[in-house]
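Memo to structure team: turn this sequence into structure tokens by end of day. - J.P.
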Amino acid sequence: MRIISGSYKGRKLTSGKDQRIRPTTNKVKEFIFNVLDDFPLNKSVVDFFSGSGNLGLEALSRGAKTVVFVENASSSISVLKRNIRALNISKDQYTIVHSDAIKYVTRSPHPFDLIFMDPPFVYPPLQNLVDKTTRSAFMHEKSLLVIEHETINPIDMESPLYVIIKQKKMGRSLISFIMKRERYE
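Reply from structure team:
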């Protein structure tokens, strides 16, 4: 696992020994960031289920202003902190929040420009989390939500809350790019 592009290009990341951490593969990450192009530049980002920080750290490398890493597992937070230290990232560029994703969405006071969700492949409340995120002030009209989820754990293709603007199957993963519907702005 490595940073693909930007100021930390080529730097290796660790995923630790915890087998529950299932980092986004370089192939999937490359697809996501090819679609995003320069969207992360100067944007506020939140990385749910951040694990090792793979997606959020890639966004920082590509010029994101700030990243909030939201992770519920203490072992994953330890790995994330090691990766942040290894890249020597300034403390004003990131925040680590030890929290459940749904609880964080419910209590977060401000919207983000770019939202990553890479839940465990078996995560039954995924649709609930997507609905809460797109229904709330967590997203504004130009926010983009990117989800890597298992093909057997899909999200609703039709929703009054959001529009899937792009979706691709990659192995066991579905990569979904979502924007909030205008009437929920």
